């Protein structure tokens, strides 16, 4: 049985059936698109997506009206447009999404410190300690939804259950703008008739294997012997059987750290020119570093990703000797990674990406160096100058970018390859 979170006012809060369902999963509805609709309300009710307007880009968020035509997130934009040629495509605005996400997470932290943020638009919340103050978990879920709407103007969906996996299933199945509640005692009976694919960790290939073995529902899976499933599927076997039985001991683990910050660019055409790839790598490294600084973080690793013309994806990574926030440092370490990827397998490149890995808040304060003017700046050498010099340079670039958003200013010493390319092209 699934409750809507409503209960009789004649009953005390602790008598509500959801009292032991203390794990909530909040998921924002079509988050990127919902944020954009705040500025473009005239697009409400029509098929629209967020993503690059190039046919080679992908959909990052789709309205529920667009989904009726089979359009989904991660779908190539060309495919989406073929499904509905009049589809409205909105270019993404990362800063707006980051600000809205911070507001949402602030609402959750006002309820309880037990918040585990999974991504920019979803989180688990353990409300065990908030019940006496705020009511039943179902009431807290309704409170959160109302508060998120008041603060951000955005819709959300909340799943309320006894553990993480069921709370996530509930939020997925209660969209849009809903609340799904399963009392703890009814967990297994709720799960039993659901399609087995709702269980975490069951992807298309495993789903096909399970179906071939006449396992179609969660209840079918729950009846299987865990040890026999281990012999068949390895360590994943007993794990998915436990989830099917409603057993998920994982706790909500509050964490502030993001694991990575990444930026990517899909080219309008497949790129074969190494200098053009290096120029784009430079831009991506500076943008990635800017986002790391904007979030008040620093990186301890760098990765470069290429997607070849055959859609295969390859990545090279390295750890940094010292944490970094500088675009120059990011680029200096990303460039040899790109060279290795291209040397290992030369294919026309469809997509290029840079990722800051193991990002976290700075562990110690780094003294600043005062600079009088950007144009009098002596650009430090990446390998020999102290980190503070690069940090100071990037802070100046950040200040310029805030005042002139369209500006693209980088130290001239890192742009020499651009000039040489233009000369060779001329």
TrEMBL record:
Residue ranges of domain UmuC in the record: 23-203
Catalytic activity: DNA(n) + a 2'-deoxyribonucleoside 5'-triphosphate = DNA(n+1) + diphosphate
Residues flagged as site, Substrate discrimination: 32
Location of the active site: 122
Record bears the keyword Glycoprotein: no
Details of cofactor binding: Binds 2 magnesium ions per subunit.
Database matches in PROSITE patterns: UMUC
Gene3D superfamilies, A to Z: 3.30.70.270, 3.40.1170.60, 5' to 3' exonuclease, C-terminal subdomain, DNA polymerase, Y-family, little finger domain
Cited InterPro entries: DNA/RNA_pol_sf, DNA_pol_Y-fam_lit_finger_sf, DNA_pol_Y-fam_little_finger, DNA_polymerase-Y, DNApol_IV, PolY_HhH_motif, Rev_trsase/Diguanyl_cyclase, UmuC
EC code: 2.7.7.7
Protein localization: Cytoplasm
Main EC class the enzyme belongs to: transferase
Keywords carried by this UniProt record: Cytoplasm, DNA damage, DNA repair, DNA replication, DNA-binding, DNA-directed DNA polymerase, Magnesium, Metal-binding, Mutator protein, Nucleotidyltransferase, Transferase
Cofactor: Mg(2+)
Pfam families to which the protein is assigned, alphabetical: IMS (PF00817), IMS_C (PF11799), IMS_HHH (PF11798)
Positions bound to Mg(2+): 27, 121
MF terms (GO), sorted A to Z: DNA-directed DNA polymerase activity
Reported function: Poorly processive, error-prone DNA polymerase involved in untargeted mutagenesis. Copies undamaged DNA at stalled replication forks, which arise in vivo from mismatched or misaligned primer ends. These misaligned primers can be extended by PolIV. Exhibits no 3'-5' exonuclease (proofreading) activity. May be involved in translesional synthesis, in conjunction with the beta clamp from PolIII.
Family per similarity comment: Belongs to the DNA polymerase type-Y family.
Assembly notes: Monomer.
Protein name: DNA polymerase IV
Organism name: Enteractinococcus fodinae
């Amino acid at each position: 049985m699934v409750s809507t979170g409503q209960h009789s006012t004649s009953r005390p809060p602790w008598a509500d059936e959801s009292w032991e369902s203390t794990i909530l999963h909040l998921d924002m509805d079509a988050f990127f698109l919902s944020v954009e609709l705040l500025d473009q309300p005239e697009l409400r009710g029509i098929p629209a997506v967020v993503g690059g307007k190039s046919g080679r880009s992908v959909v990052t968020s789709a309205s529920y009206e667009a989904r009726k035509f089979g359009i989904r997130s991660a779908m190539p934009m060309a495919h989406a447009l073929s499904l509905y040629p009049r589809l409205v495509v909105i270019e993404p605005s990362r800063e707006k999404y980051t600000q809205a996400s911070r507001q949402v997470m602030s609402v959750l932290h006002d309820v309880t410190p037990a918040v585990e943020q999974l991504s920019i638009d979803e989180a688990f919340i353990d409300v065990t300690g908030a019940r006496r103050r705020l009511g039943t978990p179902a009431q807290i879920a309704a409170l959160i939804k109302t508060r998120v709407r008041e603060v951000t103007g955005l819709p959300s969906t909340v799943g309320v259950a006894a553990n993480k996996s069921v709370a996530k299933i509930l939020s997925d199945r209660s969209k849009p703008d809903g609340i799904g509640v399963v009392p703890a005692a009814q967990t297994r009976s709720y799960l039993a008739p659901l399609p087995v694919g709702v269980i975490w960790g069951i992807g298309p290939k495993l789903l096909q294997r399970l179906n071939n073995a006449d396992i179609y529902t969660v209840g079918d899976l729950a009846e299987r012997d865990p040890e026999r499933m281990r012999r068949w599927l390895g360590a994943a076997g007993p794990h998915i059987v436990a989830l099917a039985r409603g057993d998920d001991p994982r706790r909500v683990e509050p964490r502030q750290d993001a694991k990575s910050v990444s930026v990517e660019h899909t080219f309008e055409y497949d790129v074969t020119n190494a200098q053009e790839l290096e120029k784009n790598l430079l831009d991506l490294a500076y943008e990635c570093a800017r986002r790391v600084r904007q979030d008040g973080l620093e990186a301890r690793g760098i990765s470069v990703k290429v997607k070849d013309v055959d859609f295969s994806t390859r990545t090279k990574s390295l750890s940094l000797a010292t944490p970094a926030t500088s675009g120059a440092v990011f680029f200096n370490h990303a460039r040899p990674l790109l060279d290795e990827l291209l040397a290992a397998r030369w294919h026309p490149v469809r997509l290029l990406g840079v990722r800051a890995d193991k990002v976290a808040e700075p562990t110690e304060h780094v003294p600043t160096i005062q600079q009088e003017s950007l144009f009098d700046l002596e650009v430090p050498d990446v390998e020999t100058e102290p980190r503070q010099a690069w940090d100071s340079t990037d802070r100046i670039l950040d200040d310029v970018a805030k005042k002139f958003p369209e500006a693209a200013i980088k130290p001239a010493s890192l742009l020499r390859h651009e000039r040489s390319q233009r000369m060779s092209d001329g």
